[in-house]
C-alpha cells in the first residue's frame, strides 16, 4: 500500500504491474519497503520467498526506472543468525527461512544500489514492540492472558531478544529518509541489550500485579529458535544520528497501557 497526501493505492508486492501503477500514480521521492512475512512456523516456505525476495526484486525493477527514489528497507536481525553485540559487518548466517530471505533481499538491494545508483538504506530491525503488535507476539499475548486470568504457557524463555520500542523504530525510519548516506548503507536498529524472553514475561506480569503465572517450560522451543540476539548500534548512533530513547521499563508500561485501552482493536487482527 502506498499513501501520498491522502491517496491510497493498493497492489500486490509480487505483481510488478500493480507496483508500477502505484509508483507512477504517486511519483514518490522515497519508498518505505516494509512488506514482509512474519516468524510463523505454519507459513509455507514459498510464501517467505515470494513476498520478501521476489517482492523486493519486483519493486527494485520498477524503481530503477525512476531516478533518485530512495528506498528504506526493513531488514531483520534474523539475517545474522545467533549472536550478541552483532555489527553490520558480521557474516550473514541465518538459521530461519525468514532470515535467509531477508538476507537475500538485503544483498539484492545493495547490488541494485551499485548497478543502478539506487539510493537505498537498509535498517536491520531487532525486536520491535509496542502499539499495534500482532496479539500472538510475546508482549501483547502476555498482557491479554493476564487480563483474561489465564496463565502464560511458554518455553524455558532463555532465548535473548533485543527489544526496541516502536516509537524509536519510527524515528530511525524518518532519519534514514533524511540523512545523506552512502547508497546501500545498513544500520542495526535495536536497544543494544539482549533480554531473556522469560524476563520480559515476568516483568509484564509483575507490572500488572501478578494476576497469573508464567508456565516456564510448558511449551517446546522451535527447532529454528535463535538463542542469542543483540545489536551493536554504534554505527546508527554515529552515521544515522539515531539512538533509542524509550527504556525497556517505560516501553513495557506503555505497551500494557495500550493493550488495556485498545483490546478491541487487537481482537480484529
Distance between the termini: 18 Å
Helix/strand-derived category reads alpha/beta
User: Which CATH first-tier class would you pick?
Assistant: Alpha Beta
Sheet with the most strands, sense and barrel status: 4 strands, parallel
Please trace the helix and strand order, writing H or E for each element.
EEHEHEEHEEHEEEHEEHEEHHH
Low-confidence stretches: none
In the sheet with the most strands, the strands line up as 3-4-6-11
Q: What Rg, in angstroms, do the CA atoms define?
A: 19 Å
CATH architecture verdict: 3-Layer(aba) Sandwich
Reconstruct the topology from this structure:
Elements: E1 2-4, E2 7-9, H1 16-26, E3 30-33, H2 45-63, E4 70-76, E5 83-86, H3 97-116, E6 120-125, E7 127-129, H4 138-147, E8 152-154, E9 160-161, E10 163-165, H5 166-178, E11 185-189, E12 195-196, H6 197-207, E13 214-216, E14 229-231, H7 234-240, H8 248-261, H9 263-266
Parallel strand pairs: 3-4, 4-6, 5-14, 6-11, 7-10, 8-13
Antiparallel strand pairs: 1-2, 9-12
Helix pairs in contact: 1-2, 2-3, 4-6, 4-8, 6-8
What does this protein look like?
With 269 residues, the protein is α/β, with parallel strands linked by helices. It has one domain: NAD(P)-binding Rossmann-like Domain (Rossmann fold). The protein has nine helices and 14 strands. The strands form six sheets. It has a four-stranded parallel sheet with strand order 3-4-6-11, with helices on both faces. The chain has a two-stranded antiparallel sheet with strand order 1-2. Strand 3, helix 2 and strand 4 form a beta-alpha-beta unit. The protein is globular. The mean pLDDT is 94.
Amino acid at each position: 500500500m502506498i499513501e501520498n497526501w491522502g491517496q491510497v493505492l493498493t497492489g500486490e508486492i509480487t505483481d510488478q504491474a500493480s507496483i508500477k501503477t502505484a509508483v507512477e500514480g504517486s511519483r514518490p521521492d522515497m519508498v518505505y519497503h516494509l512488506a514482509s512475512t512474519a516468524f510463523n512456523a505454519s507459513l509455507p516456505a514459498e510464501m517467505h520467498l515470494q513476498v520478501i525476495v521476489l517482492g523486493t526484486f519486483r519493486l527494485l525493477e520498477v524503481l530503477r526506472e525512476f531516478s533518485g527514489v530512495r528506498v528504506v528497507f526493513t531488514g531483520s536481525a534474523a539475517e545474522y543468525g545467533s549472536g550478541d553485540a552483532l555489527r553490520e559487518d558480521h557474516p550473514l548466517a541465518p538459521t530461519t527461512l525468514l532470515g535467509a530471505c531477508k538476507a537475500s533481499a538485503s544483498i539484492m538491494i545493495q547490488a541494485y544500489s551499485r548497478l543502478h545508483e539506487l539510493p537505498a538504506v537498509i535498517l536491520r530491525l531487532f525486536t520491535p514492540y509496542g502499539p499495534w503488535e500482532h496479539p500472538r507476539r510475546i508482549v501483547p499475548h502476555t498482557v491479554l492472558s493476564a487480563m483474561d486470568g489465564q496463565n502464560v504457557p511458554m518455553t524455558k524463555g532463555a532465548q535473548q531478544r533485543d527489544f526496541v520500542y516502536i516509537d524509536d523504530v519510527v524515528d530511525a525510519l524518518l532519519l534514514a529518509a533524511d540523512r545523506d548516506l552512502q547508497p546501500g548503507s545498513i544500520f542495526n536498529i535495536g536497544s543494544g541489550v539482549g533480554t531473556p524472553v522469560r524476563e520480559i514475561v515476568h516483568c509484564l506480569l509483575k507490572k500488572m500485579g501478578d494476576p497469573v503465572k508464567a508456565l516456564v517450560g510448558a511449551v517446546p522451543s522451535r527447532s529454528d529458535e535463535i538463542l542469542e540476539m543483540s545489536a551493536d548500534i554504534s554505527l546508527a548512533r554515529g552515521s544515522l544520528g539515531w539512538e533509542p530513547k524509550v527504556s525497556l521499563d517505560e516501553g513495557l508500561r506503555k505497551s500494557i497501557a495500550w493493550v488495556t485501552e485498545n483490546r478491541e482493536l487487537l481482537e480484529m487482527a
